[in-house]
Design brief:
- By secondary structure, the protein is an alpha+beta fold.
- It has one domain.
- 55% of the residues lie in helices and 17% in strands.
- It contains three helices and three strands, in the order ααβββα.
- The protein has a three-stranded antiparallel β-sheet.
- The longest helix is centred in the first third of the chain and has 43 residues.
């Protein structure tokens, strides 16, 4: 092997490893963003307490999708009608541990999902009730 090859080959292997770990990072970030929104949405359509709903559904929503990363830690904040679910985790990697390629903040990432309680069921019931009353009024006018 030449001197150039002995320098270039390890650098290429290092770059490939970095691409693989960066793929884990992006995949986990996208999935976490999706899962936090799903949890926030499910809490918003429920009439129960948001913390209770998220804690019940957390295990099922998160599942075993986070390969290459630690299990996310989920926290919920509810203020008024707004529900915010925050999740954070880290890629299980020590790649580029002390070298210049490793990001300074590490391989941790977080995502937040936000939803608002709109009380859709009550709104739909009200609209349906007004529609039924309107039909009854029109039917009365038709019959003398």
């Amino acid at each position: 092997m030449t001197l150039e090859a002995s320098l270039v080959v390890p650098m290429i292997i290092c770059v490939f490893a970095l691409f693989i770990y960066f793929s884990y990072y992006l995949y986990g970030r996208c999935i976490l963003s999706q899962d936090t929104y799903i949890l926030a949405f499910r809490a918003s359509i429920s009439s129960e307490d948001a913390n209770l709903v998220v804690s019940e559904k957390e295990e099922r929503v998160l599942g075993k999708k986070y390969f290459g990363a630690k299990k996310p830690v989920i926290s919920v904040t509810a203020s008024g009608k707004d529900i915010r679910v925050l999740g954070n985790t880290a890629v299980r990697s020590r790649a580029m541990g002390r070298y210049f390629l490793k990001p300074k903040s590490g391989w941790e990432y977080e995502a937040a999902g936000k939803a608002r309680k709109l009380e859709q069921v009550d709104h739909i019931r009200m609209v349906k009730r007004v529609k039924d009353i309107g039909k009854n009024l029109l039917n009365r006018k038709d019959k003398p």
